[in-house]
Description:
Helices cover about 65% and strands about 0% of the residues. By secondary structure, it is mainly alpha-helical. The protein has two domains: about 1-135, RNA polymerase sigma factor, region 2, helix turn helix motif (Rna Polymerase Sigma Factor, Chain: A); about 140-183, Arc Repressor Mutant, subunit A. The longest helix has 21 residues, at about 70-90. The radius of gyration is 17 Å and the shape is globular.
Amino acid sequence: MQEKYSDNQLVEFINDGKYEYLQVLIDRYMPCVISMASNYNVSGLDDDDFIQEGFMAIFSAVRAYNPEKASFKTFVSLCIERAMSAALARAAGKAKHIPDKLITPIDDVELADNNDPESILIEKENYNNLAQAIKRDLSQFEYQVLCEFLGGKSYALIAETLGVSVKSVDNALRRIRSKIKSN
């Protein structure tokens, strides 16, 4: 039912506070994230680290998207690519270690067509397993912070909503990132 909406409509819904539509976008772009992550095989980081970066890039793309500048598909692909490149640069310590084959002009970015039913089912299972692992590994407070953060709220607004300090929110997000990476 929600599959009939365009990317732009979904982004609009999400930015209007209808966060249930975020799942539809995630389902659409997780095959792209996984495909891109497989291009970043570097010692010290595994595909899951890059998938996590791509997952967060989808949320960031929704908040920063401007339909007058590019299609959402192009924009989110670029956001995912940049997030993974940044993770690689952080891991390597220097941006100069990014392999040239991973630097692609935006005009050359193409998404793999992973719309066959088997790929979709596998990706949904992978997403559900990841979501369950995240919920299981986080404390109730960390899970609340994560939900608020993924809802697009700033650290200050999260702190105000939960009645804690901004530093507590920052610390919780650091623990969350660490726990997600260890999965």
